[in-house]
């Protein structure tokens, strides 16, 4: 295996990645949408968008693999960071650089690989858009043009990516290890400690700006029954399916976290009660229409949602009390038949 050399501008490149606040962060629908489309266009089993850090390859978005990161020294993506151009490997088992690489021999069974370097707004190569097949294949000039166009799309997301001020401040304060510890390992969203921290920050900001803040408590209906009747792997698939729907519907500056086993907290800055209700009902309806498949098992699930809106222009408000109000509204949604949205009573 030939390990890629380190670029001459490595220190500056890593500093630029740090400013992006993208490592060890939840999955984002803007990137996932590109990954899904790339898979459809090229009809490959695996697509991923990676950010190449100092000693690891962070998978920001993925289709067809479970891995979230891996060592940089065995990563084919690291060669793209050094070379600065698209790399196409039609049969990795016959390529002198990669034939004995563990990703080729064992872990991912890579045969075909094509990767396009991704530059951030400062011009540094920070990662790659990659497609992988388990069979050798050719790659035409038109294919290269298409991959290049998709890479430009990812770069435009880098430029337009907008985190809420509260989330951005949190990411600045945390090092990579602490940031990674605040992600739910299964769902790749914020865990309870992180989402509670973000809620406090958003409430403090809304208080200063005298703006509105809405919160949703989302709970999967009859989740224990799903686990009992179909097993925990199907339960995990249900959790992942619901999270996917939530991410697809939320804005880039909204926040999503796992609050309990099958319960999620959604934070909606600068959102009125009417707008929050419309979003909540759209989430509920989309989840109900979504089919969950795992092996031979096919199920549908629903969610109940409790929501609370807070207008901080009316004075100082305890956000913990509003969280309790949203939780009580969720209980009402459950009591009143499930698969519904209830608004907290002020």
Explained architecture:
By secondary structure, this protein is an alpha+beta fold. The protein folds into two domains: 9-166, 2-Layer Sandwich (Beta-Lactamase); 182-343, Reverse transcriptase/Diguanylate cyclase domain (Alpha-Beta Plaits). The chain contains twelve helices and 13 strands. The chain has helices at 10-20, 29-42, 77-83, 102-107, 141-160, 165-173, 176-181, 192-209, 223-230, 232-249, 273-289, 319-335; strands at residues 46-52, 56-63, 69-71, 87-89, 112-119, 125-133, 212-220, 255-258, 263-269, 291-294, 297-300, 303-311, 341-343. The strands form three sheets. A six-stranded antiparallel beta sheet has the order 3-2-1-6-5-4, sandwiched between helices. A five-stranded mixed beta sheet has the order 8-9-7-12-13, sandwiched between helices. Helix 12 links the parallel strand 12 (303-311) and strand 13. Helix 2 (29-42) packs antiparallel against helix 5 (141-160), helix 6 packs across helix 8 and helix 9 (223-230) packs across helix 10. The longest helix has 20 residues, at 141-160. The mean pLDDT is 92.
Q: Record the strand order, biggest sheet.
A: 3-2-1-6-5-4
- Overall geometric form: globular
Q: Let me know the CATH homologous superfamily of the largest domain.
A: Reverse transcriptase/Diguanylate cyclase domain
Radius of gyration computed on alpha carbons: 22 Å
């Amino acid at each position: 295996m030939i390990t890629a050399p380190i670029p001459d501008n490595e220190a500056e490149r890593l500093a630029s990645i740090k400013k992006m606040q993208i490592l060890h962060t939840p999955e984002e629908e803007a990137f996932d949408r590109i990954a899904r489309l790339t898979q459809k266009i090229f009809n490959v089993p695996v697509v991923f968008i990676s950010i190449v850090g100092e000693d690891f390859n962070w998978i920001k978005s993925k289709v067809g693999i479970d891995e979230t990161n891996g060592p940089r020294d065995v990563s084919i993506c690291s060669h793209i960071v050094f070379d600065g151009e698209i790399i196409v490997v039609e049969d990795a088992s016959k390529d002198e650089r990669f034939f004995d690489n563990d990703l080729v021999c064992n872990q991912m069974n890579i045969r075909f690989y094509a990767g396009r370097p991704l530059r951030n707004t400062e011009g540094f190569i920070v990662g790659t858009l990659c497609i992988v097949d388990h069979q050798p294949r050719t790659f035409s000039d038109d294919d290269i043009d298409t991959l290049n166009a998709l890479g430009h799309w990812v770069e435009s997301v880098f430029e337009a990516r907008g985190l809420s001020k509260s989330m951005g401040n949190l990411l600045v304060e945390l090092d990579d290890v602490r940031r990674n510890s605040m992600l739910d390992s299964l769902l790749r969203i914020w865990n309870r400690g992180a989402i509670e921290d973000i809620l406090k920050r958003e409430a403090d900001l809304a208080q200063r700006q005298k703006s509105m803040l809405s919160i949703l408590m989302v709970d999967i209906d009859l989740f224990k029954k799903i686990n009992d009747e179909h097993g925990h792997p199907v339960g995990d698939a249900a959790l992942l399916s619901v999270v996917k729907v939530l991410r697809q519907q939320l804005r880039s500056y909204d926040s999503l976290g796992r609050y309990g086993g099958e319960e999620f907290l959604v934070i909606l800055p600068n959102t009125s009660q009417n707008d929050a209700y419309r979003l909540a009902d759209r989430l509920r309806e989309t989840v109900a229409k979504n089919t969950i498949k795992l092996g031979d098992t096919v199920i549908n699930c629903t969610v109940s949602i409790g929501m609370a809106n807070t207008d901080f222009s009316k004075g100082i408000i305890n956000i913990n009390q509003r969280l309790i109000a949203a939780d009580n509204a969720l209980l009402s949604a459950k009591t009143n038949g499930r698969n519904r949205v209830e608004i907290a009573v002020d």
